[in-house]
Amino acid sequence: MSSVEDFQRRLDETKISKADLNFVIMDYLINEGYPKAAEKFATEANLRSWPGDSENLNTRVQIRNAVLSGNIQSAIQLIKSSFPRVLDLNGRLLFSLLRLQLVEIIRQQNVDMWEAISFARDNLAPLAPANPDFQTEFEHTMALLIYPADKRTPVLKELLDPKLRQQVAIEANQALLEHNAYDPQPRLKTLVHIRKWAENRAVDATARGDGPKGTYLETLGLWDEEKSGGVIKNGAGEDSVMSGAGDVEAEGAGEPMAA
Q1: Is the separation of the CB atoms in 116 and 106 below 8 Å?
Q2: Dihedral sign, CA of 231, 78, 90, 112?
Q3: How far apart are CA 139 and CA 13, in angstroms?
Q4: How far is the CA of 70 from the CAs of 50, 199, 246, in angstroms?
Q5: Strand partners, 6
Q6: pLDDT band (50, 70, 90) for residue 54
Q7: Which residues, in sequence order, are bridge partners of residue 239?
Q8: In this predicted model, what pLDDT tens digit does every residue of 58-102 receive, in sequence order?
Q9: Is 219 in contact with 212 (CB distance < 8 Å)?
Q10: String of DSSP letters for 146-184
Q11: ∠ at Cα 208 (226, 13), nearest 5°?
């Protein structure tokens, strides 16, 4: 029996309790910010207690939605009122939010250059010298005011891509979880990474290399090695972490997988 076959056999023989499975699913929904799906799943699974940072779930969702809609000032105010010390202790998050706010000012069709310069001078310039990365990002952002759209490099064009909002929203969510002493990585993702690692070890250990091409997760389209060293994907092939705006809970999204 090859290592791959042995791995699959052991995997098939592993029994997971429904309680553990429900816990992992609920942890993912709470961590990633799906309140409606979490509430529905808790009812169907008859869960009396919620794991993770459930207490601040709705606040984290409000902050995320503010960032995704480009209302960065509201996001900053929500963080300051609900998590007073976070921005004082996390200079990276503060800089990311303020830089995105500057990008949103520049994004306006009739941008007031002096408004953008004043904002950058008062909010970003004092932070930039503290970190070489901040300085570089600050310079790139200010370059948007200098170069017209048809003269901008790919690096500058990426700053105006809506994906930057999503990146900052994820960064904020993870920072808030860490601030409240919760693991920013859902257990479901950790388990998938462990599964991927174990499966690769089994494939590598197959002496003749006669195992299946690709791993099981890759065959299902649930793993992308080129994105951040591998990410879990949803059925549409997009990163399933806070992908989209609004409540991120379209009809049918977040349906319970076990109960």
Answers
A1: yes
A2: positive
A3: 56
A4: 30, 41, 11
A5: none
A6: confident
A7: 233
A8: 999 999 999 999 999 999 999 999 999 999 999 999 999 999 999
A9: yes
A10: TS-GGG--HHHHHHTSTHHHHHHHHHHHHHHHHHTT--S
A11: 75
For 176-212, write each residue's pLDDT tens digit. Answer: 999 888 877 777 777 777 767 776 776 676 644 554 5
**Cα–Cα separations (whole angstroms), residue 191 to 83, 204, 232:** 30, 20, 11
Burial class (CB in 10 A: 0-12, 13-18, 19+), 243: middle
Name the 3-class secondary structure at 232.
strand
- Burial (CB < 10 A; 0-12, 13-18, 19+), residue 120, is buried
Q: How many Å apart are CA 65 and CA 165, to the nearest integer?
A: 10
The answer to whether residues 176 and 60 touch, using CB atoms and an 8 Å cutoff, is yes
For the whole model, what pTM was predicted? 0.70
Q: Is 223 helix (H, G, I), strand (E, B) or coil?
A: strand
Q: Give dist(CA 234, CA 206) in Å, integer.
A: 30
| Tokens matching residue 79 | 């963080």
Buried b (16+ CB within 10 A) or exposed e, 160-197: eeeebbbebbbbbbbbbbebeebeeebbbbeebbebbe
- Alpha-carbon span 64 to 38, nearest angstrom: 17
With a CB cutoff of 8 Å and minimum separation 6, the contacts of 69 are 245
φ, ψ (nearest 5 deg) of residue 239: -60, 125
Q: Which helix (H) or strand (E) holds 61?
A: helix 57-68
Residue that the structure tokens 């904020």 belong to = 172
